[in-house]
Amino acid sequence: MVNSVGSLIYDFAADEIHICETLHEIALRAVNPDRSQRYPSVAELGLAWKEANAQ
User: Fold this and answer.
1) Does pLDDT of 1 surpass 50?
2) DSSP characters for 1-55?
């Protein structure tokens, strides 16, 4: 359920917000329906996001 809601919110936001391709890929990975393809922790997601923003 959380992933479905997260995906729905992301899909809505993606139409309204323009972000770089790297951040877009990170967000898509974070809400991937296949749990094995998601970040293993929020800490790793946050690190990927921070590193992408630093570039």
Assistant:
1) no
2) -HHHHHHHHHHHHHHH----HHHHHHHHHHT-SSGGGS-SSHHHHHHHHHHHHH-
